[in-house]
Design a protein that fits this description.
YjiS-like; mainly alpha; single chain; Primosomal protein DnaI; about 60% helix
């Protein structure tokens, strides 16, 4: 049985990077969906316009 190398930082592991990217993508998707369900009036109440949704969701 091969030993798993635990000395490298998690960010350098390909699977960990993939999982981080998938998690970030899913969070952005969920934010986009939630904001898209709001009315224009509700968006205005929080200081957004419909055109801002993508930028808000996908900006880190």
């Amino acid at each position: 049985m091969a030993a798993i190398e635990m000395t490298r930082p998690v960010a350098h592991r390909p699977l960990a990077r993939l999982m981080e990217r998938l998690t970030a993508w899913n969070a952005a998707r969920a934010t986009r969906v939630a904001l898209s369900r709001l009315s224009d009036r509700e968006l205005e109440d929080i200081g957004l316009e419909r055109g801002d949704i993508y930028k808000v969701a996908y900006t880190r």
